[in-house]
Design a protein that fits this description.
Two copies of one chain form a homodimer. By secondary structure, chain A is of the alpha+beta class. Among the domains of chain A are: 4-63, Winged helix-like DNA-binding domain superfamily/Winged helix DNA-binding domain (Arc Repressor Mutant, subunit A), CATH 1.10.10.10; 143-210, SH3 type barrels (Roll). The first copy, chain A, is built from seven helices and eight strands. Chain A has a six-stranded antiparallel beta sheet, with no helix packed on it. In chain A, helix 1 crosses helix 4, helix 2 crosses helix 3 (37-49) and helix 4 (65-89) packs across helix 5. Chain A is globular. Chain A binds a DNA duplex through helix 3.
Chain lengths: 211, 211
DNA sequence: ACAGATATTTCGGTGTGCCTAAAAATGCCC
DNA sequence: GGGCATTTTTAGGCACACCGAAATATCTGT
């Protein structure tokens, strides 16, 4: 049970719990992968048989230690490749996803290692997401969603969801980028560079801050 | 009918007639691709139905114009990627083949274009093989096999087959490399750098000279 | 020219990953 | 706590690219 398809399942299960705790259900997995629910049932059964996920019928899907290791390897590949495309080929950070999605399955470990070396072993990708090292270790910092942060909370922007490109552009124009420090005033109003700025409401669940 | 597998068939058919005129037979195609002859029959049937190759039952396989265009695109991808791996990642020319074999199917046109640009639109790969341009045009120079060249023929080494790594090493030690000019004395004896050298007999059908 | 060797095709089958439609289990709401 | 909607699984199938075995065509040598 080692295939590009299997790796995509593992990676997707992993990503779902990276910024939130609920385990992923088959239907959500199907939606994220763009396949029919029945396809998920089938693949999950195989992954469970190989000890990569745990799954009781009609229940959620969780990675085992072995599955997580594989998922982290894929996440590493994906994020390293994205970083590389941006920094060496001038891709926009919003243009790298599809290319990385394909290359992550086909670049050899050797080439990946050379890319990693050339980039100086980066620990974060252009979206601010942490890149696991070759051993699968990943930086994890305590975080809060902007929308869930108490008033007056001050934190560094850890991550901005890449789900909505329009929102991303707006945030960019407002000067909100990964690494910036902001103080929450109320709701989506924050202090950034000393200026008080009203962010789009959607930013509430798209921006993660250090806790 | 567009798939990695189909592209591999087309590329292999193309390569077979690049330095020699006999059209490829199904069994040779099967051997080069490492698949069973029956698989070739099947795939060739599909390629013929799509107008990419011409084939009469029990006969040889030939590319149509459309098939050749596709084959040239694959050859371009393969050779550009090989060149890139050698010149930017320090791969040995004997180590690039497998990686290129995979990446040629998965790198986007856009990334390929950037690689091409970065390399300065190279026209030859590290083995001396010509790289077709984006339009499928390829440098073709009249050539003779060393073993078929008349005595006193003088020509530039156009290409050395990469089939036999041992032979390659020996030729390298004798100073015979792509680009060198040699004069044929008799059989495998040639003048190289003013010195008369006896090449291994196998060089007769592994070294191509300008006509 | 014909027998035997060789090459090619046909035939039935495999594994992977996907699908739709139908059946079964679960969860929720009154 | 029972009925209905939702979720998940089962069942049957499809396309792709491959395989081995058997049948058939072509080639070769005497």
């Amino acid at each position: 049970m080692a295939s590009p398809a299997a790796d995509d399942y593992l990676k997707t299960v992993y990503s779902h719990t990276e910024w939130q705790d609920e385990a992923i259900t088959p239907s959500v997995l199907a939606a994220k992968l763009g396949v029919a629910p029945s396809s998920v049932t089938e693949m999950v059964k195989k992954l469970a048989a190989s000890g990569l996920v745990s799954h009781v019928p009609y229940g959620a899907v969780r990675l085992t230690a072995a599955g997580e290791a594989r998922a982290l390897a894929m996440v590493r590949r994906h994020r390293l490749i994205e970083t590389w495309l941006v920094s060496e080929f001038g891709y926009g950070w919003d243009e790298v996803h599809d290319e990385a999605e394909v290359l992550e399955h086909t670049i050899s470990d050797r080439l990946l290692g050379k890319i990693d070396e050339r980039l100086g072993h980066p620990r974060f990708d252009p979206h601010g997401d942490a890149i696991p090292d070759a051993g699968g270790h990943i930086d994890r910092e305590a975080f809060v969603l902007l929308g869930a942060a108490p008033a007056a909370h001050e934190g560094r922007v850890l991550r901005v969801s890449d789900r909505d490109p329009v929102l991303l552009r707006v945030l960019d124009e407002l000067g909100l980028a990964v690494g910036r420090t902001v103080r929450v005033e109320a709701g989506a109003r924050v202090v950034l560079d000393g200026r008080s700025v009203e962010l789009p409401a959607a930013a509430g669940d798209a921006v993660w801050l250090t806790a």
